């Protein structure tokens, strides 16, 4: 079967991300990508120059997808505490089982090593935190920092689930986030405890 002459960058980078999930970042080589896409390794080198650039472009496209999903969920979910829970549950759906989550952590290491990818992560954190802030407003308006606090709890819940993945991740995350929101609501009516925590 003849090799394809062209393939859009988006498709090539999607194939590269699939290789990273299956074999880790070290498994992404121009030879492996050539096998996965049917393009020649020399064509891929001409297009992406080197492995560092290939990895960066692959992960930037993955961040683009996460940004789109976050925006879509934010646009379609109510600005209520339950909407905040649903937003984070929706973002958890891509993890699937424990193996997929573990593979994602291997890839996250590459994000943390590259300043451009860290900057993308920071921008997403800010956008997600704002979307959560809008859903967790108190009687006198938004509570500064509450969205980031909830996002941090979500990330912790994902990690704790990974040690004992007895139920689907979305169910675990929903239960954990509902407890978190419940504690926030209780805390609002328990000023003495909040005053102790502020000291």
From TrEMBL:
<dbReference type="InterPro" id="IPR009057">
    <property type="entry name" value="Homeodomain-like_sf"/>
</dbReference>
<dbReference type="InterPro" id="IPR001647">
    <property type="entry name" value="HTH_TetR"/>
</dbReference>
<keyword id="KW-0804">Transcription</keyword>
<protein>
    <submittedName>
        <fullName>TetR family transcriptional regulator</fullName>
    </submittedName>
</protein>
<feature type="DNA-binding region" description="H-T-H motif">
    <location>
        <begin position="29"/>
        <end position="48"/>
    </location>
</feature>
<keyword id="KW-0805">Transcription regulation</keyword>
<dbReference type="InterPro" id="IPR050109">
    <property type="entry name" value="HTH-type_TetR-like_transc_reg"/>
</dbReference>
<dbReference type="Pfam" id="PF00440">
    <property type="entry name" value="TetR_N"/>
</dbReference>
<dbReference type="GO" id="GO:0003700">
    <property type="term" value="F:DNA-binding transcription factor activity"/>
</dbReference>
<dbReference type="GO" id="GO:0000976">
    <property type="term" value="F:transcription cis-regulatory region binding"/>
</dbReference>
<feature type="domain" description="HTH tetR-type">
    <location>
        <begin position="6"/>
        <end position="66"/>
    </location>
</feature>
<keyword id="KW-0238">DNA-binding</keyword>
